[in-house]
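User: What would this chain look like folded?
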Amino acid sequence: MKLPRRFINGFLIGLLIFILANLLAAHLLSDCGLPAVLGADFCADDIARAGFPLVFFEQGGFSYRSIFNLPYLLLDLFIGLGFAVIFGFIARWLKTQNQK
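Assistant: Here's the prediction, encoded as structure tokens.
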């Protein structure tokens, strides 16, 4: 079965939107922004968080702690792929509506 080009473009755009939303969430949820998640910050006692819509990674703080939640990461990936597939179907549906 060959996937239509419009579906693939919509899927990739949906995936890109989800990745950008995750980067924005990591920047806004972390104390020193995105550099804290990447380990390139100069803040003392900052907390780095990652994940959207579920926070699956948290590290740092005055009393240091490190949390990595694998089920949240897998659920996050499942939500992202589902969003991308839905976006692909919407793009394909819009193309069929424009042809009428």
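The chain has three helices and three strands. If you want, I can go into more detail on any region.
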